Amino acid sequence: MRKLCNIQLLHTSKVEMFAPLRKEEVGLLIKSLRKSATLHEVVDVSKVVADVIGNINYKMILGRSKDDKFDLKGLVHEEVTLIGMFNLADYLPWLRLFDLQSLQLYEDQLILIEFMSLLATFMWHVLMS
Question: Mind listing the GO molecular function terms for this protein (predicted)?
Answer without folding.
Answer: heme binding; iron ion binding; monooxygenase activity; oxidoreductase activity, acting on paired donors, with incorporation or reduction of molecular oxygen
